[in-house]
Specification:
Elements (H helix, E strand, L loop, with lengths): L5 E9 L4 H13 E10 L6 H13 L2 E6 L2 H5 L31 H16 L3 E3 L15 H15 L4 E3 L7 H11 L2 H4 L17 H13 L4 H6 L9
Parallel strand pairs: 1-2, 1-4, 2-3, 4-5
Length: 238
């Protein structure tokens, strides 16, 4: 059963345009009486996610902020911002090392710091981000202990109580799909973007595509993004 709306709550959702952040946007719409979204242009190769986020925010009727951060592209050294590096294929499992080449060091820490600064300006008291440590990606800035420490630092650094919400933290990808169904978010997921290669339709081979496909398969639900590109009707479940 979905929780009741938090009366008076004002939230900012970090919206990449992907499956998880889109689900979190619709979760936030059920939780708070005012919701805005922020997307970061950090020089990512899969830039199609920027237009995906814009479309999803517009569909949801929320104000959308786009903030540029070009430092990650200048640093390079990872497959999401460096065109000379090919994103790894296949899913990783816990215990694999080193970190995958799609890891952008400090990305979530920087994103949430800028998001908190925007929230401070817009008088928003809640930040929502779609990170999860259950489906192992190897990203240390997606772990619960990292986010708890960051929330504490943000409150101290902003001299204001800012609550960080990670509704997907302990959910598998299949559980996330089921939550999206409960929230009525499947039509929005038809316009989300996950593929690390930025392919439209998605490549189906990179780790992000395979993890997404695995989640939908385990949940027994057809991916509305795949259906849309196949020219089939999108599921519309509440």
């Amino acid at each position: 059963m979905l929780p009741a709306t938090m009366s008076g709550g004002r939230a900012l959702v970090v919206l990449s345009g992907g499956q998880d952040s889109t689900t979190c946007l619709h979760w936030a719409l059920r939780q708070f009486d005012h919701v805005e979204a922020v997307t970061f242009d950090y020089g990512q190769r899969h830039r199609v996610e920027l237009s995906a986020a814009r479309h999803i925010a517009s569909q949801a009727g929320v104000r959308h902020h786009l903030l540029p951060i070009n430092t990650f592209a200048a640093l390079g050294g990872n497959a999401l911002t460096d065109a000379s590096i090919t994103p790894e294929a296949g899913m990783r499992t816990e215990g694999d090392s080193p970190l995958p080449n799609t890891f952008v060091p400090g990305r979530n820490l920087i994103f949430l710091t800028f998001a908190a600064a925007l929230a401070w300006q817009q008088r928003l008291d809640h930040l929502v981000v779609g990170v999860a440590q259950t489906d192992y990606s190897g990203y240390p800035d997606c772990r619960d202990n990292t986010l708890q420490a960051l929330e504490r630092a943000l409150c101290l650094g902003m001299d204001r109580q800012i609550q960080l919400h990670t509704p997907l933290m302990h959910l598998s990808k299949a559980d996330t799909v089921r939550l999206a169904m409960q929230l009525g978010a499947l039509p929005a997921l038809a316009h989300s973007h996950t593929c690390y290669h930025g392919s439209v339709p998605p490549c189906g081979e990179c780790a992000a595509c395979q993890l997404r496909a695995k989640g939908f398969a385990e949940a027994g639900v057809a991916d509305p993004l795949v259906l849309r590109h196949a020219g089939k009707a999108e599921p519309c479940l509440a």
